[in-house]
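Form 12-C: Joint structure prediction
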Amino acid sequence: MGRVIAVANQKGGVGKTTTAVNLAAAFARLGKKILMIDMDPQGNATVALGVEKDELSLTIYDVLLGECKLNAATIDEAQSAVAVVGANGDLTAAEVTLTEDEAGTLKLKKALKKVRKKYDVILIDCPPTLNMLTLNALAAADGLLVPVQCEYFALEGVAALMDTVEVVQENLNPDLALDGLLRTMHDRRNNLANDVSNELVSHFGMKVLQTIIPRNVRLAEAPSYGESILDYDAKSNGAVAYLALANELIRKRKI
Amino acid sequence: MGRVIAVANQKGGVGKTTTAVNLAAAFARLGKKILMIDMDPQGNATVALGVEKDELSLTIYDVLLGECKLNAATIDEAQSAVAVVGANGDLTAAEVTLTEDEAGTLKLKKALKKVRKKYDVILIDCPPTLNMLTLNALAAADGLLVPVQCEYFALEGVAALMDTVEVVQENLNPDLALDGLLRTMHDRRNNLANDVSNELVSHFGMKVLQTIIPRNVRLAEAPSYGESILDYDAKSNGAVAYLALANELIRKRKI
Ligand SMILES: Nc1ncnc2c1ncn2[C@@H]1O[C@H](COP(=O)(O)OP(=O)(O)OP(=O)(O)O)[C@@H](O)[C@H]1O
Ligand SMILES: Nc1ncnc2c1ncn2[C@@H]1O[C@H](COP(=O)(O)OP(=O)(O)OP(=O)(O)O)[C@@H](O)[C@H]1O
Ligand SMILES: [Mg+2]
Ligand SMILES: [Mg+2]
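Section 2 - Result
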């Protein structure tokens, strides 16, 4: 039974998409069968896996509104042996429709029911806001992975996010576990990054994953070629770090 | 009559808050009277200007819901001689209320009417999503300033944002002008940043501001002290760049 992992943080630009895409590719390299679901109208994860987001006839938007089954919108074997359900600007319109629907937060969970056993891991890339799209992901997920950029504003937002997670566990999804806080864009030479990293560990202890993703420009270059870091530059620090992350999660979450 | 400038981009982490806060402080250094409005539930701009966001009795949330006038929620002379209307997590609840209200996108514009003549510039920091909070800012604004991080995903999102701006100009605010696209976190040593910068200029020409904000760790350190870059390190590359930006906008927009 595949583990559903939501990659979320309402702080923008902390590495959610970069983590979702490259962790998916790393899991695939380690022999796992992976589905990536893009829940962000920006469609960054879709594009990063080499899919032309604006040419898709079916996206996660159609699935959430019940226009088609998840299988119909799934692009098998996109880049890096990862199956993808894409997103594009249409998804912005889902917010109002989902808000007005009483079961609006449970659409994704329902859509995933029949496909969970086809995959080892289902990763969900979330937009930078605690809206109906992110709530759908948190309601459907077994685990939550929170990328935290090693900078001040990102650190500031983690406590508020942990409060939201508690509300979700009480009202929407009691089975939601925190798979971990992931330090991203960490630059060892930079005092700020080291201070923030130390502060995270002292506040959140074991909830902070051991793997640290370093700042590595190859990670920022790869998406412009529609490739994961594993395909773009498998020897880079970024690729090594995401493989280490995949192994850490396989060990800890028995994937 | 003060110019209202919205700082917006649905891409997360591109430097919206850093730009709004430090441009406000730079304008104040140049003798302008400035009001900063934080429209992001994260409250990063509020905190960056030294205000304890969770101790505020009145915030922009109360103003938007008509509970008080803008003046009542204004903290005069916070850091750097900038007046602030703060935000905190309460603001998340405004989205549903504003969506259900027919005049939901015009609340901020209405609230600003009486105070515009008190200031030379009113800056609005927007959240990383095209929701009712951002639409309120775009409806109330005279000009839009779009920070664009010199990386691939940020470049990808600009065209979609320009489409949204056209829709806003046609339906909500015909007077909204584009004050410019601002290149942020630019690192001259990095090919990706130079490629993205060149691509922006070739696509958008004169819409791209001449001032480029360099990547400068002092900008990321300043908010943890609740200070703008002008107070934290006035000689840093970041401070110099934001002063240059203020001067460029004063010249071009006759502020
Ligand atoms: N470890 C890293 N080293 C260098 N650059 C990185 C790293 N991780 C991400 N980036 C770059 O930083 C920017 C922000 O990352 P990304 O878009 O993945 O964040 P996000 O949290 O998904 O953003 P949003 O909030 O808009 O969804 C991107 O340009 C990305 O390429
Ligand atoms: N020019 C710069 N040089 C170095 N760091 C920067 C620069 N501009 C912003 N930063 C840092 O990058 C991170 C993202 O910037 P910021 O929070 O201002 O972006 P934002 O667009 O407001 O994010 P959000 O989408 O969450 O509102 C912050 O940690 C900030 O301190
Ligand atoms: Mg993203
Ligand atoms: Mg911000």
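Section 3 - Comments
Residues A 12-18, 40, 44, 128, 184-185, 213, 215-217, 219-220, 238; B 11-13, 128, 151-153 surround adenosine-5'-triphosphate (ligand 1) (CB under 6 Å). The first helix of chain B runs from residue 16 to 29.
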